[in-house]
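Example 242.
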Amino acid sequence: MLEQIRFLIKLQAVDKTLFGLTQEQETIPLRLAELSLDEDRLGQALAAASADLEQVAAQRRELEASVEAVRQRMRKAESRLMGAKTQREYKAATAEIEEARDSVKGSEDLLLELMERHEALQRQVKSISEQHAVASAKVEAQRQELSRRAQEVGKLVSALDSERQELAKVVEETLLKEYDFIRKRKQGVALAPVSNGTCLACHMDIPPQQFNELQRLDKIMACQSCKRLLYWADAEPLADLK
Ligand SMILES: [Zn+2]
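Predicted structure in complex with zinc ion:
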């Protein structure tokens, strides 16, 4: 029985590591999906601000072009005014210049507003774009780190799986079944060391009679509280497995 206890201790050590690694493996796809959230949010903000910028820039160009057209009309009217030979020509040119002046004046406030919005949006797009680049670089580095870790964990798991298969071969069949049954229900831990009369998995004291029996190392018993298989942790013949 001592030999079987030794096998179980080794098996449990492998299973404990395997359990942790498998848990980690399961979280990796979720962590990968979460990584992009910040980057995606900034990407959307950038697209929205860029669309606004484009719209305002187009409005500004349009208004500037129409103001320029009015100014040109005004310049032509001014040269007609210079060359006016009749009162009628003089009046017509003056009226046109005034009308053009009013029109330019009327556009000034809107043009100023558009210029301010245009410049503010340019600053906003630049700032979001910089944040987006920083987030992308960070996400990319984390993504690489995670996939490196995923590979590493995959290798460790497959190495430990083979080790486990070898160990499982030497454990008695009924004992192994019992061990696996408990392990699947107890977060990967089916075997519990007992020290000074206490089960170190659930920290409950075991009955003194059971502790005496355990110290003989000739059978495997279950903890009455957590149902895990027990062994005496301080046994001399097991000292090398600590
Ligand atoms: Zn227990």
